[in-house]
Design goal:
By secondary structure, the chain is of the alpha+beta class. Helices cover 33% and strands 28% of the residues. The protein has 3 domains: 132 residues, D-tyrosyl-trna(Tyr) Deacylase, Chain: A (3-Layer(bba) Sandwich), CATH 3.50.80.10; 294 residues, Bira Bifunctional Protein, Domain 2 (BirA Bifunctional Protein, domain 2, 2-Layer Sandwich); 114 residues, Rossmann fold (3-Layer(aba) Sandwich). It is built from 16 helices and 30 strands. The strands form 7 sheets. A 10-stranded mixed β-sheet has the order 9-8-20-19-21-22-25-18-17-12. Strands 1, 2, 3, 4, 5 and 6 form a 6-stranded mixed β-sheet that branches. A 5-stranded mixed β-sheet has the order 27-26-28-29-30, sandwiched between helices. Strand 3, helix 2 and strand 4 form a beta-alpha-beta unit. About 1% of the residues have low confidence.
Length: 621
């Protein structure tokens, strides 16, 4: 169970309409309560009356601190993707209400199964907003966990900050006064608290913008993508793939499931820190891939190549990879169980060739984040992970990576190596809840070529095992969307307008006629804009001009063109430029050239929704 507890001056709510068949009966009238704690309550799978009682005990304890004895239990499904069945949830909510009353708490409850309208005034003190997670007594899941993951949980690494001059300072002694984001990242990594206690801001944004949402009909951590979100995802997939092919990789496709008993795979699974989805087919026990490594390595095993073809670069965009993440760690698009992962491997003759390749891929990753996501180096923090032995023998190489980054980085150093790699780095995005997520990453693998029987022929005609570099230039595509939305929210908090990169915006230009008689003229302008591979739509709805413009703002439309008699007569357009935060006049052709210049060399896909807004369905209420 998850509870968002808000100490409130008042709350007003009104049931609007039933959402499910078992919704309780209720009057559609406004209710108001004052001086209370509002308990937004989400019942999860496995919750029962014991959980309800524990929840009341926790709430009662905090009510004493707040000096209040009135609560409103407000069923609220949006705190989790691991929801209990409605009938089970209602039983738990009723049990919670019963126990609260028995505990002497003045208890109120909103009707279950309704879409409700509410307004709330939260008190302004440190304990006013509290998040609670109440787990069942036996909350352990049966899962397949690798030896590497178990080892990772036991390893006690040393943590440092490495400066661009190569100096390593113990993390607890580093002066973070000029590196606030690095401080948040270091704390997150060192403390390893992965559980999520509140809803990340991007979840609200992905729904508001109709990009994506939880899919209650699937396993938690599996998402549905609406047309706008699918368009953004598709463009990102195309962009990353384009950059990797330009770098020199060969694109392939491999299966999504593999045999646990395959001799190479069974051993590799124990060296990779991940939890797997497991399924059976006949007498075989299979697992769903958590990366493209399996298929690419089996393919490389069967390939014939020599030192002349090295580095041997191979790439796949997996749709999907799967990891059975803990339910308490799932958080919107930040951590999923099914995700789209660009996965690029490079087979290198030796460590020297691997180092040179590493720098090429480092710049590839920075270019993907900078050009594609508009994330500069101030938007993410770098971590490098290696053993003491690797540092002693390769200090100059490691320092060169930090210099290339251009700012201090977090170092995780182990005394011994348990994983298959000797060095790994990532670019990590720190979100508005101070949680970090890896985007780009690369690592040097010294085991798997031998494990999979991958060989090349050297200059002497002898077979040798290459080193393997594992790189994702962007990280999971879903996580890219998460990072852009979290950054937009951060900008909004600073007083700036939230916005997506122009090339990724589902609608780049919206044409708004001032009245119905200008719809045909607006259509002609939209036709001309669309000829130049610019996504444009037209607001032909019977709404006021002000409301149309306001809705375009809430949808983060980059450019809004208002078309009336003045614009038709003069040929001069009135353009609202969201990014520049200005209203200006411009010729149509000049406007088209301006937009073309800003999106040149970026992938394009046409709008996958009807151009006219009156013809579109709504995917999220």
């Amino acid at each position: 169970m998850r509870i968002l507890q808000l100490h409130s001056n008042f709350i007003e709510y009104k049931p609007i309409e039933k959402e499910i068949a078992i919704a309780e009966e209720a009057e559609k009238k406004k209710q108001r309560l004052e001086e209370l704690a509002v308990l937004f309550t989400c019942v999860e799978k496995g919750d029962d009356e014991v959980v309800a009682r524990k929840a009341v005990e926790e709430v009662k304890s905090s009510l004493k601190q707040l000096k209040v004895n009135r609560v409103l239990i407000y069923p609220y499904a949006h705190l989790s993707s691991n929801l209990a069945k409605p009938a089970d949830a209602l039983k738990v909510i009723k049990a919670m209400e019963k126990y609260a009353k028995e505990a002497g708490i003045e208890t109120h409850r909103t009707p279950f199964g309704w879409c409700k309208q509410f307004s709330i005034s939260i008190k302004g003190h440190p304990l006013a907003e509290q998040s609670k997670v109440i787990l069942p007594t036996e909350a352990e899941e049966k899962e397949v966990v690798s030896k590497a993951l178990k080892a990772e949980e036991k390893l006690k690494p040393s943590w440092f900050i490495m400066q661009t001059d190569g100096k390593m300072i113990p993390a607890e002694k580093f002066d973070f006064s000029k590196h606030a984001n690095l401080k948040k990242f270091a704390r997150y990594e060192i403390e390893k608290v992965r559980a999520v206690q509140q809803i990340p801001p991007h979840v609200k944004l992905m729904r508001k913008l109709e990009l994506a949402d939880y899919e209650p009909g699937s396993d938690p951590g599996n998402f549905r993508w609406y047309p706008k979100g699918r368009l953004i995802k598709s463009l990102l997939e195309q962009f990353v793939t384009q950059k990797v092919i330009e770098y020199g990789a060969m694109e392939v496709e491999t299966p999504i499931m593999y045999d646990f008993q395959h001799p190479s795979l069974a051993n590799y699974l124990d060296r990779f820190p991940a939890r797997q989805y497991v399924l059976s087919s006949g007498e075989k026990e299979l697992f769903l891939r958590f990366s493209a490594c399996f298929g690419q390595f089996l393919m490389a095993h069967d390939a014939q190549f020599s030192y002349r073809q090295l580095p041997f670069r191979i790439y796949e965009l997996t749709r999907y990879s799967f990891r059975r993440e803990k339910s308490g760690e799932l958080a919107g698009l930040r951590r999923l169980r099914a995700f789209t992962m660009p996965d690029c491997h490079a087979l290198c003759a030796d460590l020297e060739q691997a180092k040179k390749e590493f720098f090429l891929r480092f710049e590839l990753c920075r270019k993907v984040l900078d050009e594609g996501l508009e994330l500069g180096k101030d938007d993410y923090e770098m971590a490098i992970r290696f053993t003491e032995g690797f540092l002693e023998e390769n200090r100059d190489f490691i320092v060169s990576l930090v210099k290339q980054m251009g700012k201090p980085v977090l170092v995780e150093m182990w005394k011994e190596r348990f994983f298959y790699f000797v060095l790994k780095w990532e670019f990590n995005f720190v979100d508005n809840l101070d949680k970090a997520s890896a985007l780009s990453t690369d690592q040097i693998d010294i085991e798997n070529a031998e494990r999979y029987g991958i060989t090349y022929v050297d200059e002497k005609g002898e077979k040798r095992h290459p080193l393997i570099l594992h790189c994702s230039p962007s990280g999971a595509i879903e996580r890219c969307v998460y990072a852009m939305l979290e950054k937009a929210y951060r900008e909004q908090k600073k007083g700036n307008v939230p916005i997506l990169p122009l090339w990724l915006s589902p609608t780049q230009v919206r044409v708004i006629p001032v009245s119905d008689r200008f719809i045909e003229d607006a259509e002609k302008i939209a036709d001309e804009i669309e000829k130049h591979h610019i996504r444009v739509d037209l607001d032909d709805r019977s709404l006021t001009l002000q409301k149309k413009v306001r809705e375009a703002e809430t949808e983060w439309i980059n450019y809004v063109l208002v078309i009336g008699q003045k614009e038709i007569d003069s040929g001069i357009l009135s353009v609202r430029d969201r990014r520049a935060r200005e209203l200006r006049k411009i010729q149509l052709q000049d406007f088209i050239e301006e937009v073309e210049e800003k999106i040149k060399n970026m992938p394009f896909k046409p709008l996958t929704l009807p151009r006219r807004l009156s013809e579109r369905p709504r995917f999220f209420r």
